[in-house]
Design brief:
By secondary structure, this protein is α/β, with parallel strands linked by helices. The protein has helices at 10-13, 20-31, 46-57, 77-85, 93-104, 112-115, 153-171, 189-195, 197-201, 229-246, 259-270, 284-290, 308-315, and strands at residues 2-8, 35-42, 62-66, 89-91, 119-121, 125-127, 136-141, 144-149, 176-184, 207-214, 217-226, 251-254, 274-278, 299-304. The protein is 41% helix and 26% strand. Strand 6 and strand 7 (136-141) form a beta hairpin.
């Protein structure tokens, strides 16, 4: 099962807003066993939206769209929906009731502009919005499902978690998709690739390796797909064990672990405490360490000295 994500909004194209919606949504779909084949960002232009919907429908069975459902004139997604699905718009009583309740709970009057949020395609099934006024819309054309959701992150996330994912799980039986990330330090990507060449060539067909370099850290991501979750998990963990045996000196963590978190664990285990004197870092190391809950058990504090005068007077350097 494959899906495409289409994000609508000029703010995404001019660099004003980072497309965090697509990243989050891709993670949720992967967890549900649905592979994301493509992510596209387009502007608020009806023709462009219609063209993209048509193209996506020829590639995948599930097309998820976020953005462009607001009450202002620059939001044209519903206009494009009407054209693409050849459907008229009509006031939906359930949506109108939800919108009226939304404003009444806040002591605000329901304006005509807000009332127009209840104007939705007749062919659409409604995904109710618990935190806003723009409903989600589920439509089908030929063999593809299209789901349109608001671009406001907390509104979209609630809709996905409580309604979209359960509906997709019920409709499709996807493969299990699993990822495991190994965090390395102290060796560059190219050197690491040479060391792991033989191991990489012997990976099972169901598992793929990706190198993800960043300053100071190279992440090795193992991605697997399969029908049996237990077997897939076992295969990935076997490969992690092989990696551990091959490059133990370079591996320091897994998945979303942070170096400061592991440092804190070691300090508590060894019953040690830490004090810092920072100059060029401007206190950033202390910030990283104190971002971990419970760090007061091992971190005493930091002196941030920048001028030579303070280094000599406070630190004796």
């Amino acid at each position: 099962m494959q899906a495409e994500i289409i994000s609508i909004g000029e703010e995404l194209l001019i660099g004003q807003t980072t497309n965090t919606n697509a990243s989050w949504l891709a993670g949720e779909l992967n967890a549900a066993g649905i592979r994301v084949a493509r992510v596209t960002a387009i502007g608020d232009e009806s023709d462009a939206i219609v063209d993209m919907l048509d193209e996506a429908s020829q590639r995948v069975k599930v097309v998820l769209v976020t953005g462009g459902l607001g009450p202002t004139r620059d939001d044209v997604t519903k206009t494009a929906i009407g054209r693409f699905f050849e459907t008229e718009m009509a006031i939906n009583d359930t949506v109108l009731s939800d919108i009226a309740l939304f404003f009444r709970a806040r002591g605000l009057d329901l304006t005509e502009t807000n009332r127009q949020q209840a104007l939705v395609p007749k062919k659409a099934k409604i995904l109710r919005n618990a935190f806003g006024t723009a409903p989600g819309l589920w439509l089908e054309r030929k063999k593809s499902i299209f789901v349109f959701m608001p671009g406001v992150p907390h509104e979209m996330k609630s809709m996905v978690s409580t309604q979209l994912i359960p509906k997709l799980r019920k409709r499709f039986k996807g493969q299990h998709i699993m990822h495991k990330t190994i965090l390395t330090h102290g060796i560059g990507e190219s050197f690491l690739s040479e060391m792991l060449s033989d191991w990489e060539n012997r990976l099972p067909p169901s598992i793929q390796l990706a190198y993800l370099p960043s300053p100071g850290v190279v992440k090795l991501r193992l991605s697997g797909r399969g029908e049996d979750k237990a077997i897939l998990s076992r295969e990935i963990l076997q490969q992690v064990d092989k990696l551990q045996a091959l490059i133990p000196q370079y591996i320091w963590g897994h998945d979303n672990q942070r170096l400061e978190e592991l440092l804190g664990t070691l300090l508590k285990k060894k019953k040690k405490t830490l004090v810092l004197a920072e100059s060029c870092t401007g206190g950033y190391i202390a910030h990283r360490i104190t971002s971990i809950a419970g760090s007061s058990a091992y971190f005493k504090g930091s002196v941030v000295t920048y001028s030579n005068e303070l280094k000599e007077r406070l630190l004796g350097v």
